[in-house]
């Protein structure tokens, strides 16, 4: 999701249908700004908000439709800086199947149930991949900062050591006039 952008999606629901939206905000780019917050909302057909959140980086929201119609859920990056964010989300709800296609065989019902469980595992794996990427980027950013801070400290210590050697050498140096120094060095 690019900076200053809003993306909305629509689902047709019937009254008493249940829907779940889960999402996680990540950052693909190493050294990103670290701001992973967006705005999220779900709007009913009557334009009332089912859910409205500002400044979130993940969420898991379930609700029951109170009316028939088109429900809209949006991810908004308009107010949260100038960086691009990756939003990984999953939507779960009721899938209407005509009665003629409804499974009659217990084995077929079990296969459909297992298929739904595999889809849930796949969704969870995608969520974990985004979290891992976000945490890896944070760790790499921290490591880079520690590296540059260490280099800075080494440079300061080397500079301080050189200064101290120069200062001590200058402090213990015997001061002679120019001619006397010349005479001592010839002897």
From TrEMBL:
It is a single-pass membrane protein; Single-pass type I membrane protein. One of its GO terms (cellular component) is endomembrane system. The chain crosses the membrane at residues 148-168. It is found in: Endomembrane system; Membrane. InterPro entries: Emp24-like, GOLD_dom, GOLD_dom_sf. Its main location: membrane. It holds the Pfam family EMP24_GP25L. Keywords: Membrane, Signal, Transmembrane, Transmembrane helix. Residues 6-93 form the GOLD domain. It comes from the Eukaryota. PROSITE patterns: GOLD (PS50866). Belongs to the EMP24/GP25L family. This is Transmembrane emp24 domain-containing protein 2. It comes from Melanomma pulvis-pyrius CBS 109.77.
């Amino acid at each position: 999701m690019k900076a200053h952008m809003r993306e909305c999606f629509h689902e047709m629901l019937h009254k008493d249908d249940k829907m779940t939206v889960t999402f996680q905000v990540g950052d693909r780019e190493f050294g990103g700004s670290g701001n992973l917050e967006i705005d999220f909302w779900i709007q009913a057909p009557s334009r009332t908000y089912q859910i409205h959140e500002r400044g979130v980086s993940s969420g898991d929201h379930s609700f029951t439709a109170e009316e028939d119609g088109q429900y809209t859920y949006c991810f908004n990056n308009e107010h949260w800086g100038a960086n691009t964010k990756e939003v990984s989300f999953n939507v779960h709800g009721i899938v209407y199947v005509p009665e003629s296609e409804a499974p009659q065989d217990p084995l077929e019902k079990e296969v459909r149930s297992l298929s739904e469980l595999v889809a849930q595992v796949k969704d969870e794996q995608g969520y974990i991949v985004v979290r891992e990427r976000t945490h890896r980027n944070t760790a790499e950013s921290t490591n880079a900062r520690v590296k540059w801070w260490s280099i800075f400290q080494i440079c300061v210590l080397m500079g301080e050591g050189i200064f101290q050697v120069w200062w001590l050498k200058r402090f213990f140096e015997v001061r002679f006039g120019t001619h006397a120094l010349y005479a001592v060095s010839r002897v």
